[in-house]
Design goal:
246 residues; Myb/SANT-like DNA-binding domain-containing protein; mainly alpha
Length: 246
């Protein structure tokens, strides 16, 4: 007869293509930045550095999002394993090869559990993970509030900068419009002045032409009169001489 095999409950492990070596490299790269950041959540550029470290060592093509998701899965698995070790009071040793590495990173962070370790349903496992998250408690929430406050302050500063830039642009536009109107006014005045001067010159030329025409007519009219007077004088002289001779 075949012996009955008792299966142990499966741990919540993501079914993806991560091997133990890949995961170990990921934890190493992530753990360094996690400790350097005083156990705070990594920024996006830190996750990109973690992905680059994994890809360069194992010739993979992991993204920063995939690395973050994998770390979340590993953390959940560690919480369950840590709870099992704590509840067994030293009788259970985790067979997971990465447990000691993660335990060194987290220390006693997940030792206190608000519920006994579940063994069956997924719903109960989720309760365990929620209880483990509660052990992070106020410090994590405080850090999150601080981060949200920093983001809100940055957005507010950005809004103030944008408002100042817009006000400055409006002032510059008003100044440019004033300069344009002043230039148009000066140009119009200059044009009117040129028109007036041109009209005056034309009037002067017309008066000069009229004066010259009048003088010419007067000269032409006076020439026959002088000639007539001269001929009359000559006639009278001739008559006088004739009377003298008779």
């Amino acid at each position: 007869m075949a012996e009955a095999v008792t299966e142990t409950p499966s741990l919540p492990v993501r079914e993806d293509c991560w091997s133990e070596d890949d995961t170990a490299t990921l934890i190493e790269a992530w753990g360094e930045r996690y400790l350097d950041g005083n156990r705070r959540n990594l920024r996006q550029h830190h996750w990109q550095e973690v992905a680059d470290a994994v890809n360069n060592r194992h010739e993979l093509f992991r993204t920063d999002i995939q690395c973050k998701n994998r770390i979340d899965t590993v953390k959940k698995k560690y919480k369950v394993e840590k709870a099992r070790v704590s509840e067994s009071k030293g009788t259970y040793v985790s067979p997971w090869s990465l447990f000691q590495t993660l335990d060194g990173l987290f220390g006693s962070k997940f030792t206190k559990m608000s519920r006994p370790l579940p063994q069956t349903t997924t719903t109960t496992k989720r309760q365990v993970w929620a209880a483990a998250e509660d052990t992070e408690g106020p410090s994590v929430r405080k850090r999150e509030r601080e981060e949200y406050g920093e983001v809100a302050a940055s957005i507010e500063r950005l809004g103030e900068i944008y408002e100042r830039v817009e006000r400055r642009k409006q002032r510059e536009m008003v100044g440019l419009e004033k300069q344009r109107m002043r230039f148009v006014k000066e140009l119009e005045c200059h044009r009117m002045k040129m028109l007036v001067e041109s009209e005056l010159q034309i009037q002067k030329m017309k008066r000069a032409a009229a004066t010259a025409t009048t003088d010419t007519k007067r000269s032409s009219a006076s020439a026959p009169t002088a000639l007539t007077s001269f001929m009359t004088y000559c006639f009278l002289i001739n008559r006088g001489l004739a009377n003298f001779l008779i």
